[in-house]
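To whoever is on call:

I kicked off a structure prediction for a single chain this morning and the downstream step that reads the tokens threw a length-mismatch warning. I double-checked the sequence; it's 512 residues and nothing unusual in it as far as I can see. Pasting both halves so you can look.
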Amino acid sequence: MNKALIAGFLLMWCFSSVAQKISYSEVDRDDYREMNFEIIGKMGNNINIYKNYKSRHDISVYDNDMQLKNRVKFDFMPERVFTVDFVSYGDFAYMLYQYQKRNIVSYAMVKINQEGKLMSDPVDLDTSHASGSNDSKVYSMITSDDKKKILLFKIRRFNDRNFQITTMLYNQSMELLKRSSFYFNLPERDGLFTDFVLDNDGDLVFGRCSRSGSREYINKVDLMYKAAQSDSLVRIPVSLNEKTLDEVKLRFDNYNKRLIVNSLYYQQRRGNVEGLYSMVWDKKQNTVLTEKSLQFDDSLRFDAKSDDGTIKTAFNDYFIRDVLPLQDGSYAVTAELFYSSSRNNAWNRFDYLYGGYGAFMSPYDLYYNYPMSRMYGMGWYDPFNRFGPQNNIVRYVSENIMVFMFNDEGKLKWSNTIRKSQYDDNSDAFLSYQLFNTGSEARFLFNQRERRDLFLNSATIDADGKLKRQPTLKNLDRNYDFMPKFGKQIGLRQAVIPCVYKNYICFAKLEL
């Protein structure tokens, strides 16, 4: 056994032998349960968290033990603020926000340091005329994985099919690199957009989807590619071979300059989920490298189904949550079982995706804020309205997580299931999971109910698909209920997770 391998084993042993440490922030009586927040992350030796309640906007600065050092009030913030996002670079961060004064919607930026104080005056990056209340949230913002490119874009709707898209590309110094504007149409009246994604070169891709009717899933997809310095779009056709798609998820593989496309698919209208469609497009060669369809067999269905579910319908309530590219061209896809029910309304996957309750947060909504927003993937929870409707009891259920690993040719290498059973009434804030990358494995943190209490659990999967379920985390205070899916990784084995103490929100730093 060589020295490097021995050193690796010793390092792993050291990590595993150190007990986890949990540091809780003190409860601030101003941090009400309904507060909005954003974990900005580690900045210098501090941990910075943005907080908003009604018209109040603050940055709380904590030390490494989650002791409050300072709370900086942002009195300059306008009255009507719609979205607030942060791009952090370790020693400083940009705060980007969208607000309205009279009939003008503006998107502004300010730079803050690790002490939460302003490094620049607020600057309006762009303004738009708001013709009505539905036009208030005009802008969306996305970043590249390395945060060296920031794209601000707005979509103007003329009618059901015709749009104008304006993009503004910035570098990490917030210098405008390129502004483009182009007209765009959807082929069908009931067409949809996918999410918008940006690679490290500043190139933009989004999907244009078609449906045969407003109550149908997707039967045609075109990918639209815009190079960073280009003023035009290039169409990339996607061959579905008579498959009908669910939600289409896009992810750039910046290691290999590829785009990964995934979606659950159906073979017949209103049928069961049959499998997972995957496509990989190579940007360098401008060609589709692989296009595969993984049909779920009975073995996969048995692993995926809930305790009271059937094999035939095992994947009908699953949603793709994460797509994780690896340096060798392989990639992992995670999917989670989720549904809700109430006395008055039965669970409907279609309404969840394209209409009905929560539709305004759909990824196909033109004004949805993408990766830097506080909405999670599908948008099935929102910290701005975290605890759901109170006039009707809605039970949210979140269960197993499926993990699929594909090689660089799009073939399945392995799959595994993380079993969990979660439910709650009128709130899904404590459900689902948070995924953390430790370098050698993926760690999933999630709550598990034991009797009447929620306990934070941990499970890891390594590159070979080996699942390791850790015991319930130690030293947990039962007075705190964790919200892991709102957490943020701030180091290789460190995360900040919001939690509720009585009727207040506080934060816990977890070291594993």
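Update from on-call: the warning came from a stale cache, not from the record. Cleared it. Sanity check on the structure: Residues 43-125 form one domain.
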